Amino acid sequence: MKTRPSIATRLRAMFSEAWGRDPTIFRAPGRVNLIGDHTDYNDGFVLPVALQYATWAAFSPRSDRTVRVRSLTMDETAEFDLDEADPRPRHDWTDYVRGLAFMLQSSGHRLVGVDILIDSDIPLGSGLSSSAAIEMATGFGLLSLAGATFDLDDLATAGQRTENIFIGVKSGIMDQYASCHGVRDHAMLLDCRDLVARFVPLATDSRFVIANSMVRHEHTASAYNSRRAECETGVATLSTVIPGVLALRDVSLAQLEANEHLLDPIVYRRCRHVVTENARVLCAADVLEAGDEERFGALMVQSHRSLRDDYEASCTELDLLVDTALTIDGVLGARMTGGGFGGCTINLVRDGAVERFSETIASEYEKSTGITPTIIIAEAGPGVGPEPAGIGTDR
Question: pLDDT digits over 334-362, tens only?
Fold first, then answer.
């Protein structure tokens, strides 16, 4: 894996060699969600951290209206015209750049042609929001080179619209917002309706450790969209009997249980996950701030069971990682994280047990699946912006 201190320097050198100009470099992080999955598109609450792992994008302006973008990760180069009359998705990684550019222009920004060289140390397909990172890094760069005045909330919203409208995944705003507004050494309690964030210091006596299952099931996008549709069906029914319900965020568990008979059993379970998960997120932020790491770990386990049983967003590999983690001394909690159907788990591990946990979880998972997982300590880093001095460079 490329080390973070080399990426910006490498990008600058490769850009200058390929295109003969000295670029401007921007960075946007991936994210891991500590608790609160599938709540964001229900106007609910989430608790992510922006990671030190990030996407880096080197930019230089052109004299025409062409965007030429090369990804070192994908080893591919693509071009598109900013004045394309009817842009359609190409169903590859370039859609995150093309879609974001067109969404920015549709909101009134006049972009300029650019050359872009991209690299990343976020594991692809892991559920750590490599897509949001490329959207935010390229979006920040496109707007900056155009001399635009912009708000980070608007940039995050453009990224969400890219996925919802251009790509067709009905995701919420958590990933883009966390990538924009991350704060070092802090988690972010985000109200996804009002976009109001409260920053919570991370635990000091333990670490959040990511275990990447290295699998991503093909039905992810369709399953994600069907879960959202089931939640919307629940809201449509509940809003006829509960005043003021605009989203599942507005429904209490008591109200949901009182109206269970009105809902299809599957829709009821989907709604129950979201309603109970919102309550867990709010409680988790409070107990994390209070330093009650054991209580936080218990909430993580409850969250995973809800995602597994009520939302059916887990899979065999994620369940295996969670079940194995909970047998290891020093582990306070474990759960799947992100959209699910593959990707990663997040584990709360006491400081002195991190090395043993990493070795044991990797060994046991490989014995059962034949797959070697990647283990990452989730260090919280800053949000999107220009290349920070001393980060991503060996200056």
Answer: 999 988 888 999 999 999 999 999 999 99
* Domain, as residue range, for 220: 206-377
Confirm whether 314 is domain-assigned.
yes
Q: Which of 201, 217, 242 is the last residue of a domain?
A: 201
Biggest alpha carbon–alpha carbon distance for the chain: 67
- Do 220 and 153 have their domain in common? no
The CATH number of residue 358's host domain is 3.30.70.890
Residue 235 identity: V
- Residue of 334, 342, 348 whose CA lies nearest to 318: 342
Supply the pTM of this predicted model.
0.91
Q: Is the separation of the CB atoms in 342 and 315 below 8 Å?
A: yes
175 is catalytic: yes
Residue for token digits 């919102």?
278
* Boundary (domain end) residue, out of 141, 167, 201: 201
Q: Which of 37, 43, 95, 175 is catalytic?
A: 175
- The DSSP bridge pattern shows strands 66-71 and 114-120 to be parallel
- Give the C-alpha distances (Å, rounded to integers) separating 226 from 261, 269, 312, 318: 21, 13, 11, 20
- How many independent structural domains does the chain possess? 2
